[in-house]
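Hi Y.,

Following your request, here is the sequence exactly as I used it, all 203 residues.
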Amino acid sequence: MNRIVHIAACLIFVAGASCSESSPPPPPPSNPLVLAPMEAAEISLPEPTTADLLYGVRNSELVVVAEVLRLEPVVDPFAAPCTQQGVTYRVVEAMHGTAPAETVRVAHPVCLGRPFIDNRAFGLSRAYFTPGRTMVLFLRRDDTGRVRYEGGEWVSDYWVWDERYGVLLDSEELRALVRKTNAAGGGAGGSGATDPFGGRRKR
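Below is the corresponding structure, written out as tokens. Let me know if you'd prefer a different format.
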């Protein structure tokens, strides 16, 4: 009789599981060699001057406000200090030039110590490149398709040519500055070898 009561109690309290069943195994220990990604507050952000914006507009073929759709993998995670990574965007607004389509595939330089780079995970910061976030991008056409995935099914059609100020966090203030800069300086999609103020650009 006591055995029947014991079994009934097990069925009530563990929703049908047998009292003789062992508890689930503990989760595996974390790999100490896998570093946690950097938090947003740890990520370096660009701080362009008005001259930087003017230079960026004049030397870009396309300046857009774009929404992150998907962050692609790093091309070579063992190529530190520099490699490349692709991002798929939806164009929200073209502020200079004409976007060829609503969706663009962009190759980003990934170099340790540069803005938006997670120096621990070695790639674009997932704290910022999340689906739905909007960025301002200064782009040139990528005729060689420098970033490719899945046997050529994903090929970049634009690239961020300035790894310091080619990607900026979107804001109404920044959009107004870029429009004003574009109206004042225009944009020729030049080579980027010289700055707009007469000297050679230091890289």
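DSSP finds three helices and ten strands in the chain.

Thanks again,
Q.
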